């Protein structure tokens, strides 16, 4: 029998913006079983009909790429139950109503993850049930460990799905194909040939009214503790035996364990926040003047750090991770820069080393090479073999939900990865909190802070 999906936090922003559209895409693709139901749980009063109207609006706003009839079909599968997710009795009622063996999705603020899981523990879940937990998973190593312990009292690890939707993006998945389905790259994918790796997620978007969450998180916790470290793990991991949940999770955890936190915090990390400026013709105020921001928190809107990986393959290669808001351009890519050739036989002309880029939005791959010039054949010219990929039918959340409902963990983050990711960033957070690294500023619309 198909497992019902129970979304705790089913009236929140994530549900409206990503989960409902993802489910509508699945319905449209014929990938939802006829008897698939979705029960949303939220705190406020409301009937099924009220919830369906809200869902219809959300789908109109965020899923207009899905045909109307598929959206309507999804709305017909939805139900709503009022209740507090931290109260066992309320959860029991919701699970009884959902019936069967549920897949429970915690689309909740991470401050209530633990109490919710404890309450679920009091109710108990039937064999075969699964739980998905959103990010950020915990607030540090110890907290992630405790959260894992609570989860493992409830369910076996293979029924737990820690969500990081970047693992389901086309660009990140492409890395697997590129690396492990081609002969070309793997022999040069190591410290002998790679000079450095940059993992960048620069956004032009500013705070966009999300101070409630963002001002207590900041760029490091929001992006570099999870999404960007997952990308690092996929760039740097050893080849897996199979593209399945256990194989990928083991290889990624292995490489995360080998990541050494920045050696010199003042040199290897950078934090900053934006000041007033213009981004793509739009005036943005100072971050500190945004509604809901407490300037005294010193929250960074830009974070950067460089780490190395202590293993045979990567010893000495810097991996630089950076992400910021309100920057001049949306630059979102994984960049692998190769070493220069050992000898250049082209007179005194210099040649840039080869660069492989995997870019997001538009998703693509490009390999920048030196070729003989079209004019003088003995001159070098820089050319790129560039490919822009067509938009995938399923969004990242559509794909995540498909795998989750099928009980497949290929896109899920493991307990060890969640803990290791905190181990890497905790010393940075501590150094920043202790004032060892100054909080710099950069004007909105610029390239970001200038180090030094
Ligand atoms: N929004 C995004 O773009 C996004 C992207 C990636 C990941 N995430 C993650 O997704 C999770 C949810 O984020 P969000 O943006 O959707 O937050 P949100 O808009 O604040 O929604 C939170 C939901 O949780 C419910 N809730 C909170 N406490 C509750 C309680 N004690 N009992 C019952 N329901 C409770 C709220 O119900 P009421 O409305 O009834 O209070 C609401 O439905 C977070 O972990 C976030 O980090 C969000």
From TrEMBL:
Residue stretches in coiled coil: none
Regions that span the bilayer: none
Pathway field: Carbohydrate degradation; pentose phosphate pathway; D-ribulose 5-phosphate from D-glucose 6-phosphate (oxidative stage): step 1/3
Listed GO CC annotations: cytosol
This protein's record includes keyword S-adenosyl-L-methionine: no
Active site: 227 (proton acceptor)
Catalytic reaction annotation: D-glucose 6-phosphate + NADP(+) = 6-phospho-D-glucono-1,5-lactone + NADPH + H(+)
Family membership: Belongs to the glucose-6-phosphate dehydrogenase family.
Known role: Catalyzes the oxidation of glucose 6-phosphate to 6-phosphogluconolactone.
Protein name, as recorded: Glucose-6-phosphate 1-dehydrogenase
């Amino acid at each position: 029998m198909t497992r019902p999906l129970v979304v705790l936090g089913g009236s929140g922003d994530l549900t409206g913006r990503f989960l409902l559209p993802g489910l509508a895409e699945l319905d449209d693709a014929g990938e939802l079983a006829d008897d698939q139901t979705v029960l949303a749980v939220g705190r406020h009063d409301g009937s099924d009909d009220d919830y369906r109207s809200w869902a219809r609006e959300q789908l109109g706003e965020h899923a207009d790429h899905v045909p109307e009839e598929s959206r309507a079909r999804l709305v017909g599968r939805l139900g709503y139950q009022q209740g507090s997710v931290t109260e066992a009795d309320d959860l029991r009622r919701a699970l009884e109503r959902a019936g069967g063996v549920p897949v429970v999705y915690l689309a909740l603020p991470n401050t209530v993850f633990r109490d919710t899981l404890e309450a679920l523990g009091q109710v108990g879940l039937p064999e075969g049930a699964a739980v998905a937990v959103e990010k950020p998973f915990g607030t540090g190593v110890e907290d992630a460990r405790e959260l894992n312990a609570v989860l493992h009292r409830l369910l076996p690890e293979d029924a737990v799905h820690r969500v990081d939707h970047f693992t389901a993006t086309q660009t990140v998945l492409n890395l697997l194909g590129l690396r492990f389905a081609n002969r070309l790259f793997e022999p040069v994918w190591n410290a002998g040939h790679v000079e450095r790796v940059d993992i960048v997620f620069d956004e032009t978007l500013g705070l966009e009214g999300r101070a409630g969450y963002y001002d207590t998180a900041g760029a490091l916790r929001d992006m570099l503790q999870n999404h960007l470290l997952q990308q690092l793990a996929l760039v740097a991991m050893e080849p897996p035996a199979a593209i399945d949940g256990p194989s990928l999770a083991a290889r990624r955890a292995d490489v995360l364990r080998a990541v050494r936190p920045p050696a010199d915090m003042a040199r290897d990390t950078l934090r900053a926040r934006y000041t007033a400026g213009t981004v793509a013709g739009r005036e943005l105020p100072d971050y500190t003047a945004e509604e809901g921001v407490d300037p005294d928190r010193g929250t960074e809107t830009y974070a950067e750090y460089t780490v190395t990986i202590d293993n045979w393959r990567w010893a000495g290669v810097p991996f630089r991770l950076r992400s910021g808001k309100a920057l001049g351009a949306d630059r979102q890519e994984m960049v692998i820069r190769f070493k220069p050739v050992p000898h250049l036989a082209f007179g005194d002309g210099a040649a840039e080393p080869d660069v492989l880029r995997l870019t997001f939005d538009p998703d693509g791959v490009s390999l920048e090479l030196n070729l003989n010039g079209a004019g003088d054949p003995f001159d070098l010219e820089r050319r790129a073999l560039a490919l822009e990929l067509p938009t995938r039918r399923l969004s990242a959340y559509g794909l995540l939900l498909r795998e989750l409902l099928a009980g497949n963990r290929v896109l899920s983050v493991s307990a060890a990865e969640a803990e290791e990711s905190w181990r890497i960033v905790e010393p940075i957070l501590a150094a920043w909190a202790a004032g060892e690294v100054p909080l710099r500023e950069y004007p909105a619309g610029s390239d970001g802070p200038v180090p030094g």
